[in-house]
Structures are given as C-alpha cells and as structure tokens.
Amino acid sequence: MGMDYKTSGVDIDMGDKFVDRIKRMVGKTHDARTVASVGGFAALYKMDENRFLAASTDGVGTKIKLAIETNVHNTIGIDLVAMCVNDLLCTGARPLFFLDYFASGKLNLDVGEKVLEGIVEGCLQGKMALIGGETAEMPGMYHNG
Fold first, then answer.
1. What is the C-alpha R_g of the chain?
2. Enclosing domain of residue 24
3. Fewer CB within 10 Å of terminal CB in the chain, N or C?
4. DSSP annotation of 34
5. Does a structural domain hold residue 144?
6. Tell me: the pLDDT tens digits for 16-70?
C-alpha cells in the first residue's frame, strides 16, 4: 500500500478548514488592488491598469527530514526556490526576486551554507535575484543545523 497524505498524518481537510476560517480575517487587509483570493498558490496585486505583482511563499515540507538523514542540504535550497517559482508560474508571472528564511535549533555554518548554495542555484536557474532573508537560531524549536 502506497503512502498518501492521510496515512502519513497530514489532514488536508483540516488545512482547508483553516483557510476557510481565516479568509474573512485576512480579507480585511485587502484593498481594491488585491486580485487573488486566500488559499491560492500565489496572489496578485494590481500595480496599474496593465501590470500586476505576483507573490508566493512555500516550504520544502518533509523533504527536510531526508536532507538531515542523508546529510545532503543543497538540494532542499533548489527545491524551495522551485516550489515558489512553480506557484508564480501558475499565474503567468515571471519571478523577479526571492527572499529566504533559514531557521535552526543551533546554527551549523556548513549546513546553512549548503542550503544557501542551493537557494542561490535555484535563483540562478529561475533568473531572479536573492535580495534578502532571515536567519533564525531557536534552540529547542528546530533541529540543529
């Protein structure tokens, strides 16, 4: 029997319920230029009559576990960028730039560098600039690395 979201412990219906629950609250921040709805892969924001900005965020999910087990960390950086780029491409947008977020329990410079190498490679493949990000070290909250 193959593994699916449900047997792995992921409740897609609960995720959908969460989006339904927060839609009205999030909608309070929207104005007439907000084009996309909550829960889509990417959102659009109207700049003027002919131009829109598209934005998306994503994560690598449980692939982080494989990276830790195999000690191969550059590929999750590439994958992270690819997930975000794919979501933008669904809107017809061209990716312009990327922001990263790197969190760990205890920062390991070698692991962090490998992840960022992958992010940089993903940005180069996607022809976009890595313009900033955040590094968070939170002991007890995340895996060390």
1. 17
2. 12-137
3. N
4. B
5. no
6. 999 899 999 999 999 999 987 666 789 999 999 999 999 999 999 889 989 999 9
CATH number at residue 50: 3.30.1330.10
Mean pLDDT, the chain, whole residue set: 91
DSSP assignment string, the chain:
----TTTTT--HHHHHHHHHHHHHHHHTT--TTB-SPTTSSSEEEE-SSS-EEEE-----TTHHHHHHHHT--HHHHHHHHHHHHHHHHTTT----EEEEEEEESS--HHHHHHHHHHHHHHHHHTT-EEEEEEEEE-TTTS---
Q: Are 120 and 127 in contact (CB under 8 A)?
A: no
Token pair for 33: 């230029």
Residue 89 within a domain = yes
Residue 142 lies in a domain: no
